[in-house]
Amino acid sequence: MKKAHAAAQAATRELPNNLADFWELARAAWTTTKHLVDKDVQNFQHASIDEIRYILLQYRWFTSYYTGDLAILIYKLPPSSLRSLLGQCLTEELGMGDPSKTHPAMFDNFLLTLGVAPEDLENDVDPRNLALLEDFRQKLLAGHYIYGIGLRGMGAECLCQVYLEAVHHHLIRNEEIIKRRKDLDWSFWDIHASEADQMHGEMTRTCIEHLASKDNISLLAAGYLEAEQMFLQFWNNAYRGRPVASEAKRRDAVPLDGWRYDPAR
Amino acid sequence: MSAGNARRLVPLLAEVARRNDASLAIADPCSNLSYAQLWAASGRALKGILALDVQPGDGVACWSPNVAETLVVQLAALRAGAITVHLDPEWEAENAAAALQELGTHCLFVRAFFQGRQYPAMIKSVRERLPHLKAVIVHGREPRFERILRGGWSEFLEFGDGVSDAAARQREKQVGEFPVSRPVLRFCSVAGGARPPVQRGKASELSEGQLLELAAPRDDAAPLRTCVGLPLHQPAALVGGCFRTLLGGGTVLLSQNADALPEEALLGNASNPVTTPSTAAEFRGRAAEHPTARPALGRCRVDDSDGLGTPPPKAGGMPVDAARFAAPRQAPAGQRSAPPEQPARLKPNRP
Asked: Which of A124, B63, B124, B206 could link B185 by a cystine bridge, Cβ 3.0 to 4.6 Å?
């Protein structure tokens, strides 16, 4: 309930019209501290192994869609340092030529070592979250590139990293994870919950400043607030568990990008 | 090499390195180092330690699984006259902070990540409690981040390149004049279990003389090949496993899987069975006089499954070449090296 309220609040906030106000608006979400005290994040420390598997399985789809979304954003951007930087990020996301080292593949490997069955990787997805991701992608395709930067450029590189850092902090203290720690594939977390990704976030912010101006800052902010709202809703859906049958029918979405689990990815 | 000998540890190690320069000294899942490479690498790390203004008697700590960098730092700290402490890689940040506070550590070397643990993040969470900790150096980062992130291994070595060879030699000479009773290693007691409570005031020290006595190989012993799977904060691993093997010109195979080791100690060359049980018993006998060496005694064993010099299989680590340990161009003796091309970036880390 609190999360839904926060998401609604985010949607109705007044949009900033200068960069300083915009960074001030975004800064609050970029500290790991805030997420460390989030009760749902803290629950990773005490959750059962089944709960952990289910929640992180949902996040798998967030990671999966990110690669395609990043490619779309790069397509829309004008020549700029941000375009170049995101191109570099996309190369890393796609494993730098090695399909087994794509970030979605790394996350899948983590889930598999956690005990998620390969068939569940594809099938056990919350359709509400799938619908959110599809909706997000359509907005990215249809909207201005500045809006897209706020929506996906900042949402992933800035918002996600601090959240994953907080999740990792609590996850690694869970007794079930401690038992399995040495057998889990931590490659995804070694990148995304580490100092390395913090650097990515800082570089993204620097590049955004070269593209933002007082004429488009409100678009950037609108995209960012949309991303924040979607992000909160996504995790809220994951934490609340499997949807009831009636909700599942209402939001019956199928991923359009043909994503399927393949160890080669 | 027997007890009571006037030999000193650092010159002895230098002599072993000279005599065995092409032999394999250390193998870990990511890299192999010959004795020549190990000595050169520790020389470069020595300069890095001097550049961090570590004085004789200052504390240098390592918080890492068993990797080559840890032994490179260990040798460099010995050459600099610092006191080394190895922290249990399974400790929580609070335990590490308490130990570092207790020991007044000057600089800390940590692994970037290992089996889900992120040591830089853990240290960052407790850094403000460690005002005497001047620098944290991170090794094991992915190469593409090594040049972007501050406080890395490459940056540490390059920072040290600004220290002249003469200054490094001067420090080693100074250290050689200290008494053998000076402490060189510290060990922290633990209560056992995966998350031990902090044991305040329970650190114990090993002097250079004691270390030589415990780790000296027998004069007639063949070079050892020792698989060290126990973490290096345990005396049996560091002293009985690593130092003893290196002082005898043998090969240390660093493993990160202590669970694979058998219960009984087997120190020695498996092809020379006469030395095996008696060496172990002898080590136990001598070590009994030194309480710090007693915990987890004798869990090092020889792994004779690979041929000598065959690189061990990589355990998913990034491929590493010995070039990262290569010595830089030498500056003329007595002169400070030319400043590095980029401005020196390694300053005491921000909390």
From this structure: B206
- Name residues whose C-beta falls within 8 Å of residue B272's C-beta, 6 or more positions apart in sequence: B222
Q: Helix, strand, or coil here: B204?
A: strand
Query: ∠ at Cα B183 (B179, B185), nearest 5°?
Result: 140
Identify the top-confidence range among A207-216, B60-69, B219-228: B60-69
Instruction: Indicate the range of A245-254, B270-279, B339-348 predicted with least confidence.
Output: B270-279
Mean pLDDT of all residues in A219-235: 90
Cβ–Cβ below 8 Å for A195 and B116: no
Q: Which residues contact A240 (CB under 8 A, 6 or more apart)?
A: none
Q: What residues contact B231, with CB distance under 8 A and at least 6 apart?
A: B65, B66, B86, B88, B89, B90, B237, B258
Angstrom distance (rounded) from CA B111 to CA B230: 17
Residues 6 or more apart whose CB falls under 8 angstroms from that of A213 comprise none
Mean pLDDT lowest for which of A94-98, B58-62, B100-104, B330-334?
B330-334
Q: Which residues pair with B266 in a beta bridge?
A: B301
The continuous run of DSSP H or E covering A203 comes out as helix A195-211
- The two beta strands, B59-63 and B83-87, are parallel
Residue of B66, B145, B255 to mutate when probing chain A, most A C-beta within 10 A: B145
The answer to whether residues A223 and A143 touch, using CB atoms and an 8 Å cutoff, is yes
Q: Report the distance separating Cα B251 and Cα B37, nearest Å.
A: 13
**Can you read off the two tokens belonging to residue A32?**
């790991």
Residues of B in contact with A189 (CB under 8 A): 113, 116, 118
Distance (Å, rounded) from C-alpha B160 to C-alpha B346? 10
Record the pTM.
Answer: 0.78
> What are residue B301's DSSP bridge partners?
B227, B266
